[in-house]
Amino acid sequence: MAEYRKGKKVDPRAGLTDCEERAGLTREQAEAHACGGTPPPPPKPGPIKGRHRALGIAAAAVVGGILLLIVLAVALSGGGDGSSKGKSSETHAAAPPPPRSPGDAANLWIDADGGSCSRSIDPTAYSDPAACSSFAAAYSASSGGDTVRIKAGSYNGPQSVGSQTKTPVVNFIGEDGTTVVTTHDTQLNGLAVVGNATVSNVNVGGDMPFVFIGRDNSTWRDSRLLAAYTGPDTTRIRGGFHGATPEPILIYGDHEDDPYEHLALVNVVVEPQRACCTAHLESVRIDQNVSDVLIDRVTFLPTGPEGDNTARLFITHPGGASYPRNITIRNSVFFAAGGSYSIDGGAGAPCSFTFAYNTFAQERNISCNPGGSVLWVGNVGPKSSNGIACTPNTTWRKNAWQWDGDPRVCSGEAANETWLNGSRYSISAAGLDSNYRPLPGAAVIDKGEASCITQDRDGNPRPVGAACDAGAFERQG
To answer: Which of 2, 326, 362, 366 has a CA positioned 20 to 30 A from the CA of residue 130?
Structure first.
């Protein structure tokens, strides 16, 4: 496998339940200015045990020393071009991909056996003799702005797309039923999106599903991270296979001073993952020198105690590297997992985070130093029980938090929030159904801002009433 550092080579998913369909687990494309579940709510998690921060820091130190030896394994040779990045001075969330060609046409096609891998100047219908045999081969043959379509089927990892020279981005679009199967020998080999590329409608599975997103303008969208192996063989489980096996979805920048920008997950469903043998696990890890990261309309399905044993999403920078910044997490649903937190991160760094219109089943643990900024707007969740949530330079607007009497209000928070009186570590008083959507008369209806992001987790318009509903879903009528 080749490693890359700053340009140098170093059947649809059948059987979706009605519950899943009602949870917004569709692959519809987000609207150009879209902003940014499922089974019944899991049991309330118990009180925080105080181990998670220490576990996260210790694991980060271990992972940081070997991360580049593992997580870039999915980057195939041929993906890098040795060029400089051509930075932009703009700072904003990752943009949606350009318009796509008709569904039956593409500049290049990929199928299981491949052919001449010939590019058509104008999008054309599938031709078996002209198809490419891998994602990397198709990217190598493409030009900036091309559409590459992938025939339905299973493609063993590693599958890699991306470079720093082809602009605008190259769009890879899978037919329904397209899956990359993560393989493992001494490391994981899954899907890598490594610059100026968008991959959509491509699920990622295998024993230990793995997606790597790094380098500018990289997006994975309209897809599912499939459930991990559930059997007894620990060599097929994160932690048993390798003590520092990377998290299932890794958004990563290296130690250099120029961050990777505009990296995104959009309309992704994260199925239950699994760790064993004291391994540290979160489904999504945002790590080191990245900026302008967008997590938009992502659903984290419930897991058992072996899944996401610290948090659903972790923001970190082991080894003193540059810290992730300008992160926006919106319109997403965080069901409960084995750990105590929906989101964990900060580790004392100056943060620049926005959390907008999410539904959290568990607490958030964001610890930041002065010098950055954190915005919480329109969210629903249990009130965080520790003082870390009241970090410097934090703004609170129109959230709905649940607590059992004492809300432990942060400075400047009380006048802007809706307080839900109910049991701790729960959102039982919010008036939500089993999929975390507002029921008639729910306490979260119209509790957001009068003007907000334009669509909810399902892609439905916001607002419907006098103001936006707090949380990831807008009640429609």
So the answer is: 2
